[in-house]
Design a protein that fits this description.
Elements (H helix, E strand, L loop, with lengths): L1 H16 L18 H10 L2 E4 L11 H7 L3 E4 L4 H9 L4 E3 L4 H10 L3 H7 L1 H11 L12 H9 L5 H20 L1 H14 L5 H12 L7
Parallel strand pairs: 1-2, 2-3
Helix pairs in contact: 6-7
């Protein structure tokens, strides 16, 4: 499924990047062999950090911290380090969306039916139908069946349940980005308030809480 999703991303990129109407306005890129060297270039250049994991499912990563430390605003779920970032920078400077962990657990216990979100949300339905139409696969309507049908029938990470909340958050992102002074203020506050994630503080925590020792110097 991961390979099929990457295939779809690159297919969308080809379509968008070859559309004359979008020339100079929008580009989609999927960097190959992402590593620290590439991150050193991409992270400082980013305005927005997209952290879209399902609450309770985030792996132990530090990318969102690095983005915030470099001035990118976060649009994300209340998951992983996003929780600490939002607490540090404040709700006004963080674009929260999606279910929290108790809501995820409750929906799972109730019985999650992703197809119901597809049927009830015209924008979501249009997006998935466009993928199935062959628009991104040279007219082949079945090239990405696996991705769409997985979303409609399994959707382990409940992406369809969080879809509308994500769209609403992006509307707030656009509104803030249009106000250059407000966006700049939020970016500066992200940098100023996320020093908590410095390696010095992390090492002190490890020394005191895990190893229960003191620094040598």
């Amino acid at each position: 499924m991961a390979k099929d999703t990457i295939h779809l991303i690159n297919a969308v990129a080809r379509t968008v990047n070859n559309d004359p109407a979008l020339e100079g306005r929008l580009k989609v890129a999927f960097p190959a062999n992402y590593n620290v060297t590439l991150a050193e270039k991409l992270i400082p250049a980013a305005d927005l950090s997209e952290q879209i994991s399902l609450a309770g499912m985030e792996a132990s990563g530090t990318g969102n911290m690095k983005f915030a430390l470099n001035g990118a605003l976060t649009v994300g779920t209340d998951d992983g380090a996003n929780v600490e970032i939002r607490q540090l920078v404040g709700d006004k400077h963080f674009f929260l969306f999606g279910m929290d962990e108790p809501a995820v657990a409750a929906l799972g216990a109730k019985g999650y039916d992703p197809a119901s979100y597809y049927e009830s949300n015209p924008q979501l339905k249009a997006a998935l139908d466009l993928i199935l139409s062959g628009r991104f696969s040279a007219g082949d309507p079945h090239a990405f069946d696996s991705v769409v049908y997985n979303l409609l029938n399994q959707d382990r990470f409940m992406a369809l349940a969080d879809f509308q909340s994500y769209i609403d958050a992006q509307a707030r992102v656009e509104e803030r980005y249009a106000d250059q002074d407000a966006w700049t203020r939020s970016a500066i506050l992200n940098v100023a308030r996320t020093g908590y994630f410095s390696s010095d503080r992390s090492m002190r925590d490890y020394l005191q809480r895990i190893w229960q020792t003191t620094p040598m110097i």
